[in-house]
Amino acid sequence: xxxxxxxxxxxxxxxxxxxxxxxxxxxxxxxxxxxxxxxxxxxxxxxxxxxxxxxxxxxxxxxxxxxxxxxxxxxxxxxxxxxxxxxxxxxxxxxxxxxxxxxxxxxxxxxxxxxxxxxxxxxxxxxxxxxxxxxxxxxxxxxxxxxxxxxxxxxxxxxxxxxxxxxxxxxxxxxxxxxxxxxxxxxxxxxxxxxxxxxxxxxxxxxxxxxxxxxxxxxxxxxx
Length: 224
Fold this sequence. Notes:
single chain; alpha/beta; Rossmann fold; 3-stranded antiparallel beta sheet
């Protein structure tokens, strides 16, 4: 698989321009909200999007795909990038061993600390994963491209969070298999929730829907 450069965002922006063409030049930002957990933007065409606010936030205040396809089977070597609480909780419930790469160990609970590995150990830890679970905020802190490049070609890679794009080409081309994100269904109400410090618990199923995108096995083989 080609993991050529650190260019997921520029590649996605170029894809958006290809899709919209001249129409893009006439689109403006109608409203932007920097919330405690998420940042949201509404365009004047009525479309809205969101990403994680790039500050230390409460890990529980995120979304994740409910599909069991994101969970590993017994015997898999599992690596979680980021203290992504829903995944850690489910792994612990299943008594599934795992390692969690995290920049701030304070985000982990006492019973999770034995699985902690500093983010600086990514080059040693990530290639050993059979299942790699990555929070979308890695796109914000400029580590995602490197993480995807480190992943084994046979690893099953899942990315989750509103920061994960609904335009998945750049992520799929670099090895992601399952993408969990959100589609905003009521932009004004969604931004109001963010302005009030709301999290995924407040907007999911109300002003935004969970979306899970899954790569077809044949497409993975073609990209490898």
